[in-house]
Write a structure and sequence with these properties.
single chain, mainly alpha, 0% strand
């Protein structure tokens, strides 16, 4: 129960801010008296949150699955020669700015979620790859030899011995990847995708600081809530 308290607290704050943002109009009016429209009204904040979550879930799931698959592949004897290449490519994906990926992808893929998912996938791949590799190579050889001695084949040993022991480190990589994606997903609004970045970008273009603040607060609360959930899961695995 104690492990669930922190995630529940942040989730409560996120939901309260999401559904209560429009009720804070007097507050934003007093903070920004020169603004005619101090509260973002183009979409409901609940719809923005759900759309943001959908985009993050798709991109993070793809990054996690691909990253874990690559990490497993390069820690097998038949794939060890490609480990350096895999790490280099995944690192390049994170150093390449997501905005640049969008600029390159939009002409061929068009506006919409597809280029946004591609950009977020590339940006979130590195932590999943690195932590999967780190988790698997830290499994003691004695443990793997013992599993082999018990008759475990390579794949059974992987699924029943190596991955469970590597799970905490892999989870940490997924945690970093998802948190990065939550913050970066705001840029998807530049290619016509509705996200919590919509009020931020509109606020920047219209010089409406209130909009920027509202979107940023919700993105921050979503990241903190997600981080708390991963923290609780990590505690249960430890």
């Amino acid at each position: 129960m104690i492990r669930l308290l922190r995630p529940a607290l942040w989730l409560g704050l996120l939901l309260a801010a999401t559904f209560g943002m429009t009720s804070l109009r007097p507050l934003f009016t007093s903070l920004f008296p020169l603004l005619e429209r101090p509260v973002y009204m183009q979409d409901s904040f609940a719809a923005l949150l759900l759309a943001h979550l959908e985009l993050v879930t798709v991109a993070s799931a793809l990054a996690g699955l691909i990253g874990i698959a690559i990490g497993i592949a390069v820690t097998r004897p038949w794939g060890a020669a490609y480990r350096g290449l895999a790490e280099t490519i995944s690192a390049a994906g994170q150093t390449f700015p997501p905005v640049a990926v969008l600029a390159i992808a939009v002409p061929s893929m068009g506006f919409g979620p597809e280029p946004a998912v591609l950009a977020l996938l590339l940006y979130g791949l590195l932590p999943a790859v690195q932590n999967t590799i780190a988790g698997l190579i830290q499994v003691p050889d004695a443990v793997k030899d013992a599993a082999t001695g018990l008759g475990f084949g390579p794949w059974r040993r992987l699924w029943q011995v190596e991955l469970p022991l590597a799970a905490p480190l892999i989870l940490t990589g997924l945690r970093v990847s998802v948190i990065i994606t939550i913050g970066t997903a705001a840029i998807a609004s530049t290619v016509g995708v509705t996200t919590l970045g919509s009020p931020v970008l509109l606020g920047l273009s219209a010089e409406n600081t209130a909009y920027v603040l509202q979107g940023a607060v919700l993105i921050g609360l979503l990241a903190l809530t997600t981080d708390a959930v991963f923290d609780a899961i990590h505690d249960m695995l430890a």
